[in-house]
Amino acid sequence: MKLKIAIQKSGRLSEESIRLLRDCGIEISNGLNKLKAEAANFPLEVFFLRDDDIPQYIEDGVADIGIVGENVLLEKNKNVRTIEKLGFGKCRLSIAIPRDKPFNSIKDLTKLKIATSYSSILSQYLKKKKVKAEIHEISGSVEIAPGIGLADAICDLVSSGSTLLSNGLKEVEVVLRSEAVLLSNKNLSKEKKELLSKLLFRIKALRSAKNNKYILLNAPNKKLKQICNILPGMKSPTILPLAEKGWSSVHSVVKEDQFWEIIEKLKENGAQGILVVPIEKMIV
Ligand code: ATP
Ligand code: ZN
Questions:
Q1: Residue 283 domain flag
Q2: Do the domain assignments include residue 53?
Q3: pLDDT band at 31, cuts 50/70/90?
Q4: What is the pTM of this model?
Q5: Same domain membership, residue 7 and residue 52
Q6: 284 occurs within a structural domain
Q7: How far apart are CA 73 and CA 55, in angstroms?
Q8: Which residue among 7, 12, 57, 91 is best mutated to probe the pocket of ligand 1, counting the most ligand atoms within 8 A of its Cβ?
Q9: Which listed ligand is nearest to 140 at the C-alpha?
Q10: Pairing mode of beta strands 212-220, 272-278
């Protein structure tokens, strides 16, 4: 028995999806021209599919789990379970209009024709904002629609904004912020649930490792108390004596988002030779 995972065949999520599995210690052969592959050292079968089809395959049980952007998940609105945000494939679904057009509020979109591949998400958003606009569904190259006179505005995925810029458009409204998520079928067997939780355990270990740093520093012994109070640590900091008398080496783990604040406080309290090291995996 194997757990079947669906990932994007070729596109913006493919590489990171495969890397995630690899970082979880699961080796799969590169499937660029294949429909499926088997993992060598985990009971996992990998299907390579178009991202748009993945939610349906999971709902139907053809795949047990899969990775897609939240944008695709919401647009397709299938009966599947969201298991975990994965921290990659970050983008936003935004409304953009020609750069030279004025824009004060979303009401300015009233009666405009908006081209998008995300008609379901967009129509819900416009309804919520009480704006009546015309949605024109197209499947690709949305960003050229205003330039060729097909629409007055677009609603499309943006990350850096350079595509918008080169098409003479400006982003005026963020409809949704999205990242890749792990989905699962709602009726997995007990055995498959166990495999999924094994995989999830590894994914979480990677995610918390990315959000934390290992920190080493030297401190005079008389300052140790203050320094230990600043450092949270997984349990409490490790303290080792240095060869130089009256000094210690302190080791701990700090959260990425509190990092700079903590470093400043440590310096103020006499810490020296601060080293910060990435953590590969973290089991809490
Ligand atoms: P497919 O052939 O699988 O249907 P696609 O053309 O629909 O591919 P991609 O452009 O590869 O899809 O994007 C896949 C996902 O990557 C998007 O649905 C979105 O979640 C995410 N993504 C991240 N950044 C961006 C971006 N700048 N533009 C588009 N998608 C992005
Ligand atoms: Zn797609």
A1: no
A2: yes
A3: low
A4: 0.89
A5: yes
A6: no
A7: 7
A8: 12
A9: 1
A10: antiparallel
